[in-house]
UniProtKB/TrEMBL annotation:
Protein source organism: Clostridium estertheticum
The protein's name in its UniProt record: NAD(P)/FAD-dependent oxidoreductase
Keyword annotations: Flavoprotein, Oxidoreductase
A GO term, aspect molecular function: oxidoreductase activity
Keyword Flavoprotein on entry: yes
One protein family per Pfam: Pyr_redox_2
InterPro entries: FAD/NAD-binding_dom (IPR023753), Ferredoxin-NADP_redctase_2 (IPR050097)
Organism lineage: Bacteria, Bacillati, Bacillota, Clostridia, Eubacteriales
Domain FAD/NAD(P)-binding residue range list: 5-142
Amino acid sequence: MSKRYDIAIVGTGPAGLSAALNAKIRNKSFIIFGNNELSNKLAKAEKVNNYLGFYGKSGSEIRDEFANHLKSMDITITEEKINNIYSMGDYFALMVNEKIYEATSIILATGVNFGKPFKGEEKFLGRGVGYCATCDAPLYRNKIVTIIAYDKKEEDEVNFIATVASKVYYLPMYKEKVDVVSSIEIINDVPLEIIGDEKVTKLTLKNGEIITDGIFILRDSVSPGQLVPGLTMDKNHVQVDRKMKTNLDGCFAAGDIVGVPYQYIKSAGEGNIAALSAVAFVDEQKKKQS
């Protein structure tokens, strides 16, 4: 049987990190999924003046402080992208392609940097549409792959796919200069719709179309409603109460994902509350079982 964690945290911005610190302090077994860079949004902030005790620091300086704090508490980040989370009754199953993680409770802290899904994206998820190119690379050996990316940092992943696939089309959705291997065909166009039968067959663009076996959409995060089926949303945000509880038992959310104001100090505070709520939930479940 795979290990079942008390708490799984998705996201490594201030909300997710704050939740992890509190899970650690309360001696709960937990796993935190995200990025060792922690938060792109934070790293790009020029000056942060509204975070108590961090006056006049740049976002990257604060990020470094966060990283030091994690290191001092021996918290490691699992650099994997969660595709879906399913409520299984008394636990949650977190899907990372062919891998499944289990947790009694979950805390969603993925921020709001997700775009609106493309037409056909949700329909073909797992049937030619994916969010992690390196994870699914073996499935596309000698096949045609199209990658849509929203951040220059994804170029390494794109170059890696080019070593496996027979052909790679690349649609960069960012402003910086594109620097990928020469075998990759760069297409500067706007993706509109993903089309297929049982599986993906093509991507239609504003000015044409691409015949393709698979499409990877590399954005920072997927919409929470898409990530966790059955979650109650309020427009783009997850609906929570004062204890950061969602409509799903054992599922909590914190940070930008639950609404404005989008401020780091607010996110960190909510991550703290979400962790305490998750700890109380886990203790309650253990009491019931014993």
